[in-house]
Amino acid sequence: MPPSVEPVPSTPYVDLDRKAWAALSESTPLPLTDTDVERLAGLGDPIDLAEVDAVYRPVSRLLDLYVGATRGLHEASSTFLREDTGSTPFLIGVAGSVAVGKSTTARLLRELMARWPATPRVELITTDGFLYPNAELERRGLMDRKGFPESYDRRALVRFVSKVKAGRPEVRAPVYDHLSYDIVPGAETVVRRPDVLIVEGLNVLQPARPTSEGTSNLAVSDFFDFSIYVDARTDDVRQWYVDRFLSLRATAFSRPESYFRRYASLSDEEAVATAERLWDTINAPNLVQNILPTRSRATLVLRKGRDHAVERVRLRKL
Ligand SMILES: Nc1ncnc2c1ncn2[C@@H]1O[C@H](COP(=O)(O)OP(=O)(O)O)[C@@H](O)[C@H]1O
Ligand SMILES: CC(C)(COP(=O)(O)O)[C@@H](O)C(=O)NCCC(=O)O
C-alpha cells in the first residue's frame, strides 16, 4: 500500500457564498443589542442592520480570533527572545476602489470590533491624509492622478504605521478634507496606542517598491495583521460613484468652501457627464492599474452585489 498523502489544497483561499457565510452568524457570539443598533444607525451610513448581523458580525468575530492568536504568538516570541515588549496595536488594512464602500465597511468594523472584550479601543485612519497637498501635486503634475500611488507621501505613511505598530504612545497623521479637496494646513489626527488600528485607503495593499539600489523598502501593507479588500463589479462601482456625486451636488458641493462648488449648479445631465468623466479618467484607470492587482494579497475579500449586499466572502488560509 502506498503511504497516504494529504491532498495539497489547490488554492490558498476558502470561498463561501453569502448563504454559507451568513450561516456562521448563527454560531457567532455577541448578537447586536438595541444600543449597538442605535450606535450603528447613528453613523449615518445607509447600511441595512440585517446585513450587519449576517455578514459583518462574523467578520468581526474572525478578526477577534486573529487578535487573540496574534497576541499569543507575540507573547510566545517575546518569551523566546527574553524580551519584555508589551502588546502592540493590531493593524487592519481596508482596501478597494473609490466609492466601493471602504469607509462604510471600516466605520462598521470599528463599531463592531469595539464590542469585543479584547479590543475596546479601536481607531480608524484614512490614507487620504498622506496625499500630497494640492500645491505639491500641481508642482509634480499629479493633480489628475489623485489617489494613484505616486500622489501620496508613502514614506510618511510607512513611518506613521511603523510608529503605531511599535507601540509609540502618540502618533500623528495629517488630515485631508473632501470639501476643500486638499490637506488641511496644521490639522492632525492623533493615534494613542489603540487595541486595533484600521487603516483605510485605495492603495494600502500595494507591495513595497524596489529602491534604485535594487533593495526593497517596507510598504504599509507589511505592517498589517489582517487585510480586507472590498470588491464589486466595476460597472456597479461606477454607478455608485455617479450616485454619490449627484447626492453631493445637492449637499456638500453647494457650500461656499467646497472645491467643487462650480458643480453645484450643473443640470442632471451635466452632473452625470462630469462624474462619468472623473470616473473614466482618474478612478477607473487607478482601479485597473493599481488597486485591483492588489486584491489577491488581502486576507479577506468581501464581494458586493449591485445592491451593496455581500454575495461572496473569500478568506486566505495559507
Ligand atoms: N453597505 C452599504 N449599503 C448601502 N450603501 C452603501 C454601502 N456601502 C457604501 N454605500 C454607499 O456607496 C457609496 C460609496 O461608499 P463609501 O463608503 O463612501 O466608499 P469609499 O470609502 O470606498 O469611497 C456611498 O454613497 C455609500 O453611501
Ligand atoms: C481622496 C481619494 C484619493 C481617496 O483617498 P484614500 O483615503 O483612499 O487614500 C479619492 O476619494 C479622490 O478624491 N479621488 C480623486 C478623484 C475624484 O475626485 O473622484
From TrEMBL:
Top EC category: transferase
Keyword Transferase: yes
UniProt catalytic activity: (R)-pantothenate + ATP = (R)-4'-phosphopantothenate + ADP + H(+)
Protein localization: Cytoplasm
GO MF annotations in UniProt: pantothenate kinase activity
Binding site for ATP: 96-103
EC number: 2.7.1.33
UniProt keyword ATP-binding present: yes
Protein name per the record: Pantothenate kinase
Domain Phosphoribulokinase/uridine kinase: residue ranges: 91-235
NCBIfam families tied to this protein: panK_bact
CDD domains: PanK (cd02025)
One of the Pfam families matching this protein, by short name: PRK
Pathway: Cofactor biosynthesis; coenzyme A biosynthesis; CoA from (R)-pantothenate: step 1/5
InterPro entries, per the entry: P-loop_NTPase, PanK, PRK/URK
Family in the record: Belongs to the prokaryotic pantothenate kinase family.
Key words, A-Z: ATP-binding, Coenzyme A biosynthesis, Cytoplasm, Kinase, Nucleotide-binding, Transferase
